[in-house]
Prior knowledge:
- The chain has helices spanning 51-65, 87-102, 115-124; strands at 33-40, 43-50.
- The chain has 125 residues and is of the alpha+beta class.
- The chain is built from three helices and two strands.
- A hairpin with a 2-residue loop joins strand 1 and strand 2.
- The chain has a two-stranded antiparallel sheet with strand order 1-2.
Amino acid sequence: MQKESRSPYSQRMVQKVITTLVDDVTGEQSQDIATHSILVDGAGVEIDLTDENYEKLLEILNPYLHAEGARRVRAGTKPKAKTQTTTASRDESSAMRAWARENGYAISDRGRVPAAVREAYGKAK
């Protein structure tokens, strides 16, 4: 029976990964650092902070987070744009649609009025 020889390169390598947690504001290293997500106008960032710096951030944001008109949003949702659909804007859309049909434009009964139709309507007025 022949013994199989092993090359020193066929040995398994062991890796040890060391993660150093660093506060993004102060550069301080600590085991008490957590990642926090911040979303403003649909754009988000993640920031790693110590508990102390996170408390400072919340203190600064507190008047804005608890403002009378502030509303909570679920993570992953974009804030809805504030739009007012008034009777006047519905009436104007209806008028644009009627004008478009009278002037040979193919337009649906529902949905957004195409920009080309809006532009032509505006010029015709």
